[in-house]
Amino acid sequence: MSMTDLLNAEDIKKAVGAFSAIDSFDHKRFFQMVGLKKKSADDVKKVFHILDKDKSGFIEEDELGFILKGFSPDARDLSAKETKTLMAAGDKDGDGKIGVDEFSTLVAES
């Protein structure tokens, strides 16, 4: 399954483009722009599993830095600052990684 099976390709392109500048990433706006906020809980979990590149059941900090590439292969990497900000917003239990429930909450709070 690819991201465009779940989300509109044009919405993804616009959202990735909106955050092309370093340190401009805002996960709340991004999730809204790609249409993720309007998706069912099941679809949000499917997106999580696409972003969980190593299939560990978690999005670790190194994977989080490449989150935009999970939506569009030609997107930029997040800066270290953006990655840490996103991890802090999503890692509710402080274990240094984002699980599927934490990701679902992160999207819902957007």
From TrEMBL:
UniProt cross-references to Pfam families, sorted A to Z: EF-hand_7
BP-aspect Gene Ontology terms: excitatory chemical synaptic transmission; gene expression; inhibitory chemical synaptic transmission
Gene3D superfamilies for the chain: EF-hand
Signal sequence coordinates: none
UniProt binding sites for Ca(2+) 2: 91, 93, 95, 97, 102
EF-hand domain: residues covered: 39-74, 78-110
This protein's GO CC annotations: axon; cytoplasm; synapse
Molecular function terms from GO: calcium ion binding
Binding sites annotated in the UniProt record for Ca(2+) 1: 52, 54, 56, 58, 63
Keywords per UniProt: Calcium, Metal-binding, Repeat
Family: Belongs to the parvalbumin family.
Function: In muscle, parvalbumin is thought to be involved in relaxation after contraction. It binds two calcium ions.
Protein name as catalogued: Parvalbumin
Organism: Mandrillus leucophaeus
